Prior knowledge:
Elements: E1 4-10, E2 14-20, E3 26-33, E4 45-46, H1 48-65, E5 73-80, E6 86-89, E7 99-100, H2 108-116, H3 139-147, H4 156-166, H5 170-175, E8 179-182, H6 184-192, E9 199-201, H7 202-205, E10 211-212, E11 217-218, H8 220-226, E12 235-237, E13 240-245, H9 248-251, E14 256-262, H10 263-270, E15 279-283, E16 287-294, E17 305-312, E18 315-324, H11 328-336, H12 346-352, E19 361-363, E20 381-383, H13 391-417, E21 424-427, H14 434-444, E22 448-451, H15 456-468, H16 475-481, E23 484-488, H17 494-511
Parallel strand pairs: 1-5, 5-14, 9-12, 15-21, 21-22
Antiparallel strand pairs: 1-2, 2-3, 4-7, 6-8, 10-11, 13-14, 15-16, 16-18, 17-18, 19-20, 22-23
Helix pairs in contact: 10-15, 11-13, 12-13, 13-14
This protein binds adenosine-5'-diphosphate.
Amino acid sequence: MKTYIMALDAGTTSNRCILFDHEGTICSIAQKEFTQYFPKPGWVEQDADEIWSTLLGVAVEAMSKIGATAENIAAIGITNQRETAIVWDRKTGMPVCKAIVWQCRRTAGYCDELSAMETPSYMRGTSSDSDGTESLPSLVDVIRGKTGLVLDAYFSATKIRWILEHVEGAREKAEAGELLFGTVETWIIWKLTKGRIHVTDYSNASRTMLFNIHTLQWDEDILRLLDIPRCMLPRVADSSGIYGMTDASYFGGEIPIAGAAGDQQAALFGQACFGRGEVKNTYGTGGFLLMNTGNTPVKSKSGLVTTIAWSIKGRVTYALEGSIFVSGAAIQWLRDEMRLIDSAPDTEWIAERVPDSNGCYVVPAFTGLGAPYWDPYARGCIVGLTRGVNKYHIVRATLESLAYQTNDVLRAMEKDAGIRLAGLKVDGGASANNFLMQYQADVIGQNVCRPQCIETTAMGAAYLAGLAVGYWEGTEDIHANAKIGRVFTPQMPAEEIARRLKGWDKAVRYSFGWAKEE
Ligand code: ADP
């Protein structure tokens, strides 16, 4: 029988398992949602044991659907929701509390306190941000210099600290070496190996806000600042490489676990963006743009974060990342709150019913604006309304806003990296919309390339694992598998685009600062 690579995709709302063959074809797939807990406004939790049991369940299901046994699986690659923090007991394997999900804002207040703090003496002068000026770097700048990230509740660091501060007995046990921390892939590998392997990969480590992306070590200064014991942290390993074997009890035999990467980085890999300057955008609920910047971490001046894309054979590849909070979610808003459409795909023909948005712009800044604006007080607006604007125009303007927001981040990436974009690779739910993809190509004035298989996240994990065990020889094999679905080429005259972009810039400005108290 054939052999496959198993991709375990531990997402935010559901877990999936996909079995790929050598051509990168999906041969079997199973998926299951799991429970989300919202114990207080702004808090988001999950049950780590449920994450594990549903993921194991879909893995067994995907195998049994095609009668595959452990001998038919050459390796397992894992991709995961990033930043979510799990802390568990090394001996019993029991999580000490629910997993704190990346979306959870419970540590926002603590992050504000940190931002206002003077940089501790032991951290002064250690910033790679230092530009030679006399003034002391702020703590925000020091942390950004070390980790590439903005000091925010989004990343794992302050979530771990919260657990140590609030779960009874956790700090003492952690200091005694009895507790372990992991992001979701670490937890899954630990479970699959029955507690033998405690490891993370560079891409996930770089999202914790505890990892120095220049020295490639856990950062002792930040650990001291947050009072997090070093002994809780996993070993950091290549994104492609054998971490260990699954315990034989799960799949009826041992399988090598040979790859791991955070979901957005895995998508970049799955899109075969191996060259410096290559960019992908995922149009999901939110939008995530990543640009491969090669072996140099590029410091952003435009509100992007610097992150590790992956590491293979000890060679680290970096990326610039820009997140758009509301992308496909704006289409859900049209459907669920505005009730202008019955289903998301309907937006395509509705937008095509009118030649343009009739001067109307929708800025979906529902939860503030992410990159490159970073305005938590921005709120959504619809501007340019005249008596002739109808629902078709508003639907069209909403779709157009996804393209404009993407363009804003792309231009920031080009500026930061000093690289002219050569085209955009796309995936995610809303990339199925042909109107949107054509408009995106028009707005950026570059080709937009949509692959045949938009399961790029799982493919990335599969490729990382398959490369490690020799299932695929090298990136040429991956390029050979990367089948293009459709390429959208720019059609609209440049002057027309410039006129529309000017309107968008003006519209975005109306959303700034809206929720700020006077
Ligand atoms: P996530 O992984 O964040 O859950 P998906 O990649 O599954 O997201 O994409 C779902 C999003 O894509 C939803 O917000 C939905 O509104 C949007 N979407 C799905 N299909 C279309 C379409 N044909 N046109 C526009 N938006 C779409």
